Give the backbone structure.
Amino acid sequence: QVQLAESGGGLVQPGGSLRLSCAASGNIDRINGMAWYRQGPGDQRELVADITSGGRPTYAHWVKGRFTISRDNAKNTVYLQMYSLKLEDTAVYYCNANIRSGTDGYTGDYWGQGTLVTVSS
């Protein structure tokens, strides 16, 4: 069974930095695109950034250079480095990946359980 597990969330002051990680595990044949989403209090879940299997990133327009998405294909892991954090970045951050199962060849989207990022002074 394929699983995604995020880590790295926590409490940070405005202007601070955090690095989120998300590792995929299980019987994996191939990982296609990977992405980070977030959902703030009372908000809908929104895309933060995604990255292709070849490493090409795309960012939400509001990121404006503050976040960097990367991946380590050897470790089945995607990262989100966040700088210059703002109060409005407070949210639960979710990892998403499109994965082909090595068990039955099923390809679909998988989600992590989420990691809370709180930006507060």
